[in-house]
Design brief:
With about 130 residues, the protein is mainly alpha-helical. The protein has six helices and two strands.
Length: about 130
């Protein structure tokens, strides 16, 4: 399911980019596509004898162990850095730009929108699943 959701968001990202409008949503859809792609790549995984099938199960474990991870986005950034470090810079850039576009300033340049789409493409090129 995660991969299909990622592809759906990637298609929306491409459509929005080609429209030349709503660059904030180009970045947002690029980020959420990346989020689903990396979660598909990372999960399931085992750690200390436990299997984690998805982010929710892993995050619940972190909360019960009083980890320093403060939210699911931060946890995903950490997991990308650990499991697919070649994607870490692209993922972090998309995350940061998305948070800015969604919550601080929806006015996003054409260049940033194009970069978001390119970083999503580059991120995908590093994935195996």
């Amino acid at each position: 399911m995660r991969k299909q959701h990622a592809i759906h968001n990637e298609n929306a990202c491409q459509f929005l980019l080609e429209s030349g409008r709503f660059n904030d949503w180009v970045i947002t859809t690029a980020f959420y596509s990346a989020l689903h792609f990396v979660q598909h790549e990372i999960f399931p995984f085992q750690e200390n004898g436990e299997t984690y099938d998805d982010l929710n199960s892993y995050f619940k474990h972190l909360l019960s162990s009083k980890s320093k991870s403060s939210n699911k986005h931060r946890t995903t950034i950490d997991l990308v850095k650990k499991f697919i470090p070649s994607c870490s810079m692209y993922y972090r850039w998309l995350h940061d730009k998305c948070m800015s576009a969604r919550y601080k300033n929806y006015q996003v340049s054409d260049r940033s929108a194009s970069t978001a789409r390119e970083y999503l493409r580059l991120l995908r090129s590093h994935l195996e699943k």
